[in-house]
Design a protein that fits this description.
It holds the Pfam family HisG. This protein has 328 residues and is an alpha/beta fold. 28% of the residues lie in helices and 28% in strands. The protein has 3 domains: 3-121 and 225-234, D-Maltodextrin-Binding Protein, domain 2 (3-Layer(aba) Sandwich), CATH 3.40.190.10; 123-223, D-Maltodextrin-Binding Protein, domain 2 (3-Layer(aba) Sandwich); 256-321, Alpha-Beta Plaits. The longest helix is centred in the first third of the chain and has 21 residues, at 78-98. The protein is globular and about 80 Å long. The structure holds adenosine-5'-triphosphate and 1-O-pyrophosphono-5-O-phosphono-alpha-D-ribofuranose.
Length: 328
């Protein structure tokens, strides 16, 4: 089937085609009951149960498609959104300063709006230097060579440093004294191979940089995966519906339901321990003086909460996983 000709009337939703965000993004789509089958080697998949087409794109390109309004919705890293928006802004500024009338990427750009943090893909874009080297603070790298895949964020960062040091006359790559070298991957190898004095690259566990003999000296951006939308989506109601479903899945993943019985004398203390998202549900038990409480609790806090409930005399404490939610 020629899928490209079946996109009419469908909301386009961009999903990372590979890499770190792919699996978690697919899990979210499944949780939101977005049903599709991706044919081998095809980067478009029609959704069976909703008027949506999924477009599988490199995570770094998704802000371009969404920002220009070609695709209405996307899942990508906040770092890629920041890089794209910074690039557009810098192109606009350069153009305005030069008085040029040649169209640039920024002309088609309406902008991306972040709908929500998706809670996975946490990483930091950091300035890294060789452990056994002469650089210990970011300003030591002014006028040096910097390797990165995030050229616009790096340019902005060093423009700011140069300004603070009283070296540069303003922003923009042409005025920068520090040399930003664009690399598309394995950025951590650049220092050891003599291409760069320092790098600006993503770090999660820190293992890659440690193995490459590098150490962080600053963080440029902290990132997680985000759901973004274009300024003028083709079907705003469907965007809201999908956002609501995805929010429900994320909440379900983040919380558990805690149920227990406690004596009415301890009700105030118990409610302090499990205040719930809105408020706990409290029901009377058939047994005189006792109540049954059920409340949503953040998964990461549940062990401590159970300890504290036990201390106030709670009994029959049960913790249940939540399959899905729609909460206020
Ligand atoms: N080590 C990491 N830990 C967690 N998230 C990361 C990590 N590296 C990257 N990310 C996140 O995942 C996004 C996609 O990066 P990833 O390297 O997986 O993409 P990719 O499309 O495979 O790109 P490339 O081919 O350049 O590696 C990044 O923009 C960032 O938000
Ligand atoms: O802190 P860590 O958990 O070790 O992760 C950091 C590494 O992950 C990313 O690279 P990726 O594996 O995507 O490879 P690439 O940059 O060479 O494409 C990033 O560019 C670092 O190299």
């Amino acid at each position: 089937m020629d899928l490209v000709n079946h996109l009419e009337g469908r909301l386009l939703f961009a999903v990372p085609k590979k890499g770190r965000l792919l699996q978690e993004a697919l899990n979210l789509l499944e949780g939101a009951d977005i049903q599709f089958r991706r044919e081998n080697r095809l980067d478009i998949a029609l959704v069976k149960n909703l008027p949506i087409a999924l477009i599988f794109l490199p995570a770094a390109d998704i802000p371009t498609f969404v920002g220009e309004g070609r695709v209405s919705l996307g899942i990508t890293g906040r770092d890629t959104v920041a890089e794209h928006e910074t690039g557009v802004e810098s192109a606009r500024r350069e153009r305005a300063e030069s008085g040029s009338t040649t169209p640039t990427e920024g002309d088609a750009h309406q902008g991306c709006e972040e709908i929500m943090d998706l809670g996975f893909g946490a990483c930091k874009l950091q300035v890294q230097v060789p452990v056994k080297g002469p650089y210990s603070k970011p300003s030591d790298l002014i006028e040096k060579n910097i390797g990165t895949s995030f050229v616009h964020l790096a340019e902005d960062y060093f423009a700011q440093l140069e300004k603070e040091a009283g070296i540069s006359s303003g922003q923009g790559p042409r005025k920068l004294k520090t040399k930003i070298i664009e690399l598309s991957g394995s950025v951590e190898a650049a220092c050891a191979l003599g291409v760069a004095d320092g790098i600006v690259d993503l770090v999660e566990s820190g293992e890659t940089m440690k193995a490459a003999g590098l150490t962080p000296i600053d963080t440029v951006v902290s990132s997680t995966a985000v759901l973004i939308k274009s300024k003028h989506p083709t079907n705003p109601q469907l965007v809201d519906l999908l956002a609501s479903r995805i929010r429900g899945v994320i909440t379900a993943q983040k919380y558990v339901l805690c149920q227990y019985n406690v004596h009415r004398d301890q009700l105030v203390n118990a409610v302090k321990i499990t205040p719930g998202k809105r408020a706990p549900t409290v029901n009377s038990l058939e047994e005189e003086g006792w109540v049954a409480i059920s409340s949503m609790v953040e998964k990461k806090k549940i062990a401590t909460v159970m300890d504290e409930l036990t201390e106030v005399g709670a009994q029959d404490i049960l913790v249940l996983n939540i399959a899905n939610t729609r909460t206020g």
